[in-house]
Write a structure and sequence with these properties.
The complex is a heterodimer. Chain A has no helices and eleven strands. Chain A is mainly β. Chain A is globular. The chains are: A mainly beta, B mainly beta.
Chain lengths: 115, 111
C-alpha cells in the first residue's frame, strides 16, 4: 500500500458526460501527479501540482482539467467524454516538486469506462 | 506519443534465472527511471539512474545506461515468481519538464 488513495475505483459513464476523479496523496507529500494508461497510448503523464499550484504539464487534453486543494487532495475533471478516454487513471504523489528526481508513489488507479 | 520503447515486449523465464529488459528512448535525458506494475495496479518505483551514471545497483536489480545509444537495460538476477509484473522505463527529458514512458515489458517468472 503506497499511501495514495484514489476514488472511485471504477467508473462507467456515457459519451459526452463529465466525471471527477479524486486523489489523496501520502501524508506529507506536496506534489500530485496524474497519469493516463490506455492500451493504445500506454502510460502518459498528464499534469503535476505542487502545493496547490500547477507545476508541470504533459499530454493533457483541453477537455481535462485538474486542481489541488488546500488540504492537498487533487481532482481530475474529464468532460465531454469520448470512447477513447476509457483508460486507467493513476495519481501519484511525492514529497517535493522535483518531477525528475523525486520518487513518486502511485495510487491504485481509477478505471474509467466510457460507453 | 511514446518516447521510450521496451524490448522484449514479453519475457517468460524459470524462477532463479536472470531477466534482462532493454529500453530505448529518443530524447536527451536528465535521468531514466524503471518502474514495476503488477496487473491493473499502480506503478512502483524501482531505481533512478542519472544521465552521468553508467551503472547502478539496488538489491537484485542492475541498471545500465548508455546515453550515446540512448538505451538502458534492467537486469533482475535470481528471479522469483513475485517478480512477475510489467516493467516500464521512464525517460525524463531535459528539454521540457516531462517524463516519457516506454511501452513496457511483461515478465512472467515460472515457479
Amino acid at each position: 500500500d503506497s499511501g495514495v488513495t484514489q476514488t472511485p475505483k471504477h467508473l462507467i459513464t456515457a459519451t459526452g458526460q463529465r466525471v471527477t476523479l479524486r486523489c489523496s496523496p501520502r501524508s506529507g507529500d506536496l506534489s500530485v501527479y496524474w497519469y493516463q494508461q490506455s492500451l493504445d497510448q500506454g502510460l502518459q503523464f498528464l499534469i503535476q501540482y505542487y502545493n496547490g499550484e500547477e507545476r508541470a504539464k504533459g499530454n493533457i487534453l483541453e477537455r481535462f482539467s485538474a486542481q489541488q486543494f488546500p488540504d492537498l487532495h487533487s481532482e481530475l475533471n474529464l468532460s465531454s467524454l469520448e470512447l477513447g478516454d476509457s483508460a486507467l487513471y493513476f495519481c501519484a504523489s511525492s514529497v517535493g516538486s522535483a518531477f525528475s528526481t523525486d520518487t513518486q508513489y502511485f495510487g491504485p488507479g481509477t478505471r474509467l469506462t466510457v460507453l | 506519443s511514446q518516447q521510450g520503447e521496451e524490448d522484449p515486449q514479453a519475457l517468460s523465464i524459470q524462477e532463479g534465472e536472470n531477466a534482462t529488459m532493454n529500453c530505448s528512448y529518443k530524447t536527451s535525458i536528465n535521468n531514466l527511471q524503471w518502474y514495476r506494475q503488477n496487473s491493473g495496479r499502480g506503478l512502483v518505483h524501482l531505481i533512478l539512474i542519472r544521465s552521468n551514471e553508467r551503472e547502478k545497483h539496488s538489491g537484485r536489480l542492475r541498471v545500465t545506461l548508455d546515453t550515446s545509444k540512448k538505451s538502458s537495460s534492467l537486469l533482475i538476477t535470481a528471479s522469483r515468481a513475485a517478480d512477475t509484473a510489467s516493467y516500464f522505463c521512464a525517460a525524463f527529458s531535459n528539454t521540457g519538464n516531462q517524463f516519457y514512458f516506454g511501452t513496457g515489458t511483461s515478465l512472467t517468472v515460472i515457479p
